[in-house]
């Protein structure tokens, strides 16, 4: 024993950090991050994690016993890390360290890893005689100690015993191996345990809450997404607790299946994750290739599960980790691809999954001694998983919100459509009302006059008959005009449906419209200004405007009808002016009503009309996004101004 | 006070008035037929007759669709004057319309005693008056 330091008492002297006043988990976490790379002392100066002070030996045959190991002292090498870790293998790992208890307290030992399939402990005195030994295994959990335990928590030295002892620990695991060995009084050992276990419990509790909540939503909404999410949360809890000191799954699968045939159940975690992600993004429609990839990976997990029946877990565990990594990266990439494609559900998914990935990256760094082993690092996966569950819950909540918003939008649209329909219906009704009135009037008048003519004809009153026939002619003429103006409404609609044609020569149209309608002798039209020349408007539409102007001028006139037209080019507008010498309109009385359909105003000429003309012009103008206005006074004619925007 | 021998025709369409007048004349029931195309003028007419305590025509034949106001609006306007009379003129609606809305307006206008569909005939008139 000469020259060998006794790490327990030496380090107790060296490191005195009082953590008792800073018990909060988060403070621990921060300290863990700040003290990057430093040896970590947990909870109390009386507690020691002894990785740096121990040596290890890898027994690849895993069949050597204590005697054989003792003879291979020269093969032991330094652990060099606070917590020993190694990839999964069939090897047994032996650790040895010396302890001299000067603390005046009972000394306890804690190996905090619930996945050790074999754990042996030997205490040797100065003469290398075994004075105490114990054995433990996650395959045969024991509950006989002070606490139920899947792991090792042992009393190793008496209070007053200041002798130096040599200790050996043998450990095996199916998984990548992690052997944190703590020494200290029982109270400190327990306290330390709590720091490690409480965050796990928090995660489990929150997980179960979220699970129940989402199951409830599933039963209410019957949306599979919530069922899959519940199952995913369930699987996450099983996986999370399996890796901690609460392997729930082994309590109903049995420790042998739970630990030795791990992937018989492990793959369900990834399968359910895939199901959840699939229905979350509706991959069937939004990412069929990702869907194939995800479920192919799940098939790989299932395949590994089947292989696991024949091949021990430790031979596949390292490969398994790689597959898990690929699976998580697939989901990660999927999230960001969906974000890139502006999928509204992607944002929260990406946040959640990024947290998981960060934890997933952080943990191996701790495992390999690059980052310190402490409560924060030990629990980073749970913290990540916890945040992820929260974020996903928010995402699912926002789906409900989306549905609500969608519903509201639909309602608004429905109300709008409904009011549009009502408006259309009432305008159709009004149209019908007027058209049927005007047409019936023509027919009634004709019928009335004809029977009247018949009567006077029979009594031989020829002059009266002639008078009636004159009236009849007028009725028929007006009738024709009425029918034509109604028909022209339909024509204009047809014009609007057609594509825009080439610009027209407006000057030609002004005179052609006169000629076509035989109005040359009835009205004199002058173009007093033409700055426009070619106007991008449909010929028929323009003709319709002109014809309605002309007939109004002719109809409502005491003199020989005359009109002056000006085409003015403004910066943003084509402006058309039409001025006539007609009887004019009382603007105060009639004003803007003029452009409403079927609106006829009383005039001293008592000329008849359908009330369609100005309405028609207004519709054409509005169709070209233009405006129309008029100025008039009784006896002073009218001045119309039409403005078409130049850019349309 | 009303004059049973007097009738007033109100229609914005002159042709309609022309032959309605002829039909009314043929019934020989009236010695005075008043013809109007503008309801506003009739409102003024009723107003002045009432103010000067002169008798009103015993019968009004009123069109519905007219530019200034429709037949029911016209009746609303003359109603205050008619309400002061013990014996009211008999008002008939004469129209081409069979629209539900017009029927409803008619139902809500107690002063209008009959709803006649154009064209007017002597028989229709006699049936209403007796």
What's the short version?
Chain A is an alpha+beta fold and 648 residues long. Chain A has 18 helices and 19 strands. In chain A, helix 11 packs antiparallel against helix 12 and helix 13 runs antiparallel to helix 14.
Q: Which structural class should the secondary elements of chain B be placed in?
A: alpha/beta
Distance N to C terminus of chain B: 19 Å
Largest interface, C-beta closer than 8 angstroms, per-chain residues: A-B, 23 and 19 residues
| Rg of chain B, Cα atoms, Å | 14 Å
Strand content of chain B: 25-35%
CATH fold node name of chain B: Rossmann fold
Described by strand count, sense and barrel closure, the largest sheet of chain A is:
6 strands, antiparallel
Question: Mean pLDDT of chain A, rounded to whole units?
Answer: 80
Task: Please describe what this structure looks like.
The complex is a heterodimer of chains A (648) and B (130). Chain A is of the alpha+beta class. Chain A has three domains: 186 residues, Immunoglobulin-like; 218 residues, Rhopdopsin 7-helix transmembrane proteins; 147 residues, Heat Shock Protein 90, CATH 3.30.565.10. Chain A has 18 helices and 19 strands. In chain A, the strands form five sheets. A six-stranded antiparallel β-sheet of chain A has the order 3-2-5-10-7-8. In chain A, helix 4 runs parallel beside helix 13. Chain A is rod-shaped, with a radius of gyration of 48 Å. With 130 residues, chain B is an alpha/beta fold. Chain B has one domain: Rossmann fold, CATH 3.40.50.2300. Chain B contains five helices and five strands. Chain B has a five-stranded parallel β-sheet with strand order 2-1-3-4-5, sandwiched between helices. In chain B, helix 4 links the parallel strand 4 and strand 5. In chain B, helix 2 packs parallel to helix 3. At the A-B interface, helix 13 and helix 14 of A face helix 1 of B.
